[in-house]
Specification:
Number of helices: 6
Distance between the termini: 60 Å
Largest sheet: 4 strands, antiparallel
Radius of gyration: 18 Å
CATH class of one domain: Alpha Beta
Helix content: 10-25%
Strand order of the largest sheet: 8-9-12-11
Keywords: Carboxypeptidase, Hydrolase, Protease
InterPro entries: Peptidase_M15C, Zn_M74/Hedgehog-like
GO molecular function: carboxypeptidase activity
CATH topology of one domain: Muramoyl-pentapeptide Carboxypeptidase, domain 2
Strand content: 15-25%
CATH architecture of one domain: 2-Layer Sandwich
Pfam families: Peptidase_M15_4 (PF13539)
Shape: globular
Protein name: D-alanyl-D-alanine carboxypeptidase-related domain protein
Length: 246
Amino acid sequence: MSPIRRFGTDRFSLPISTPGPLGHQDAASPDSPEWVIGETPGPLGFNDYADPSYRFRIEDGNSCRLTDKVPVPQHINRGLTAPSPDFLVLLLGKPRELYSNECERVTNPILASQMLVSQVGPFKVHGLRPAIESLKMILNEIRQEHPNVYASLGSSGMLCCRKQRGSPRISSHSWGTAIDINIKGALDERGDGRVQYGLTLIAPFFNRYGWVWGAAFRKEDGMHFEASKSKLLQWEAEGKIHSQRT
């Protein structure tokens, strides 16, 4: 019989369970509930998530590929709120004076000095330094738990000074505190109320590290993840950002 990987019934609480081989959760642990995500054996006997042709068992017993669209899970972003543009301006200053619908560079020298280009696992990003350090930790945990999901991930942009799509408000990408994630180069369609299955597997890790998942936005944006207001305040308290409020 193919191995079955087991995770919590509520993936967004990520209960601690007994570590198994290579740091994966051990299905033998009494702490491991019943949520089954697949049983197609891949390298080292684990599920081969990297190939989108592989299919996965989900809660209702049907099968699903990483890029298949599924309903937005419940109980996401618990206790987390996305920062408003006004809050980001207050905390970090204006990235630039004028914005369009196209990506433009940061012209605020103090903010620009806090930006970093770095490899964060399977892709390279340009963003706010503490956000990048946080991404490295998130992706490292994803690599340990879902190594082949990790291998399928790509970035569709982090730092990008522009307006929000369909709005005159400034996008949080303008401060380098948000990232859009794709799976094998496939973008999740915004606003259809459904998300790529693979995104539901990585979102709990982002939530655990204080990042908001855009799947819960008024207009669903499943590929979007951004540092929450509480996370930004934590970085400010730890001296990891040059706050405009000091």
